[in-house]
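notes to self, project folder thing:

trying the whole complex as one job this time. last attempt i did each chain seperately and stitching them together was a nightmare. two parts in total, labels are on each line so i dont mix them up again. if this works i'll redo the older ones the same way
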Amino acid sequence: MTHLELTLQPEDYSLLTDLYQLTMSACYVGESIERRRASFELTVRRLPENFGYLVAMGLAQALEYLEKLQFSPAQIAALQTSGIFSHAPDRFWTLLETARFTGDVWAVSEGTVVFANEPLLRVEAPLWQAQIVETYLLNVLNYQTLIATRAARMRDAAGPQAVLLEFGTRRAFSPQAALWAARAALGAGLDATSNVLAALQLGRQPAGTMAHSLVMALATLQGSEMEAFTAFHRYFPGAPLLIDTYNTIAAADQLAQQVEAGTLTLEGVRIDSGDLAILSQQVRSRLPGVPIFASGDLDEWKIAELRGAGACIDGYGLGTRLVTGEPVNGVYKLVELDGRPVMKEASGKLTYPGRKQIFRCFEHGQIHSDRLGLITEMPNHEQPLLQPVFKQGERLQSTETLEAIAERTSVSVASLPAELRRLQCPSPPPLEISASLLELTNQTRHARPSRND
Amino acid sequence: MTHLELTLQPEDYSLLTDLYQLTMSACYVGESIERRRASFELTVRRLPENFGYLVAMGLAQALEYLEKLQFSPAQIAALQTSGIFSHAPDRFWTLLETARFTGDVWAVSEGTVVFANEPLLRVEAPLWQAQIVETYLLNVLNYQTLIATRAARMRDAAGPQAVLLEFGTRRAFSPQAALWAARAALGAGLDATSNVLAALQLGRQPAGTMAHSLVMALATLQGSEMEAFTAFHRYFPGAPLLIDTYNTIAAADQLAQQVEAGTLTLEGVRIDSGDLAILSQQVRSRLPGVPIFASGDLDEWKIAELRGAGACIDGYGLGTRLVTGEPVNGVYKLVELDGRPVMKEASGKLTYPGRKQIFRCFEHGQIHSDRLGLITEMPNHEQPLLQPVFKQGERLQSTETLEAIAERTSVSVASLPAELRRLQCPSPPPLEISASLLELTNQTRHARPSRND
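result (full assembly):
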């Protein structure tokens, strides 16, 4: 076969995994340990540079995956004929034939801010099931958490009044990445997406302005930029007009004449190039009261810079720097097996053993501190962030609306101390490790079963 | 609705677009210019930092999209009920009902190296069709070209003998991004992917090793790391063993005893942490002849650094830094309409007008220079890189195999002058603009139809 089919079906996703998840599962079957109870936790060890927090996102897709997990006869046949499993035990295939996820899942709600070393999710399930879901869970939570965090930072930089539009589809890493970016961005407080499919699937109205090509096309065929504005305005009177194709100020002057003459009701203009701070001030003075949208590789730092420079910008189109860039690198680590705490400690990549809970302490509505402790510890006027979302393979909660998630993001970011919200060099999070967890970590380190030395 | 469905159907893709592509098309219909012949070219104006070239990739998916483009009655109804198009002409809907792509496409073959300002693709079609496909074409070509370029650079840094494995699924930006990354990486010369679904869809064998979780699970339940190695080796005797869970050197020593005793035939080991140069040398001295794989946030620069430090590494697992990071930011610009050249010139974002061709001049098998000229110019012992791939909506070529694309990538990268292949501060490309194109650019600039000043 020479190219990937565009189609992606839910039943494809069980093979959307690294080969070793399947080979390791076959090994577990061969050793008759595949049903031992295992707990894996998904944690981000180090945040992207200049990030003081993460906004958890992607749980809805993760749970949908777990609900639908199964292997079709065709998939099993494809694995069998690959030859890779020729020494694997036959019982591996009967396991796949009837596979479904029967475990428990604990997770932090979407829209909640979390810090490095805090688990976003824990899977407690038969070892082979908990193993096999690793790749997909990391894929969905890593990506949507990245986008949600960027979106929340951009919202924080732009202020609550600004209109923030997600324009990233052309720069997103595949069509599905565009859809998921739109979802995560809306869940983290952006107002709308330009992606029509994403908007319709999410029950939202897509948003957009116009492109240079329309201005150029109508200017070429009908004689002037103003003809382009007039034509587009005729069919889409509410859409902002893009005024930087030739000369931004000249376009603003011409539009101002029409507005003053009462022949045009202008709902907004967009500027996509040039010195946005200065141009937006000049446009504002010519078109008072008309919303000004800015776009062009903008991110949270540029938004803050523009606001600091006194730019007159009411809305931002956010694309490339929202949907690409340095990733969130979550890992998914075995922390308990058969009731025994487990940890990896090679070369500084330490993970804390045991099933854990994040106990969050608030003071006057602000996050005072987080305590990373064991699930068996009791909260002490603290909010436990990890909540059960799956019990014995059954979903416990109905899916939240995107509006509820966006509200949680807003409240959660607002509860952060200022030094963690900073865009540059945020402070380390107020995270303490509980005495019980420290003790368990020391015990596990000294009791590790496989010292080779 | 509260979450995106996991399903992606080919018929969904017509709405995988920015809203303004649809509103502008409706405006073209209203102005009766929707069938004017338009040419758009897809070009990367500026390469990511330290990139001397790009490897074109993603054309197969772009063409599949164009072949399948259509709007279903349900999609049209969804657009109609959105309210956004309430002032749009009725004829827009009849256009969508019978929509299919009827234009011509010229493109650079996948696996070809190109430089900034060289078109990767040109669409020549009725204006509204050429407009509406922008978002999707940019999405697929931007992303796969990025991945192919990174993969080609990693191959170039690692040398032709190294085994390069694509391990990026958990860090890719959505499941589909993982599939497309695997395709692009294989097309640019990587040997295999760990993504089972991608490998099976591409007719390849998936590859993989084992994870720390298996070592920890078996060490916990059966007593030692060596039990884990023995067990996994029993079912997958060809798979490399991961030896850095506890103590890399101790693990290598234990394996060496088994190899020397003749009780183990070792096909490879993997090291995922620590000082890979020193550890690989120490492991090589203990396990001579055993292939050593390295992984852990590796990229082309780290591969070059490891080789420079005398690392004994035979293969690399490449993930995060292959599939994420700074994007390729292609743009899709109107260059000709109704036979008239068109250009945008605002604020330094200049695009050359007219339908163009890249004329590549080779000397002794090396790229001597590229000439960006008009499609009407004749090659002068040069190779024209843009070839017709679609004619009046019909595909002209059958799809290429991934092996053929990988071979072209290899030859194409080998034809680059050394100063362009450098990983740091590569030279600017030997690109000249033809006299005819310069003249047309000047003419178009002075003849622009919409001077507001």
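what i see at first glance: The two ends of chain B are 49 Å apart (CA to CA).
need to look closer tmrw
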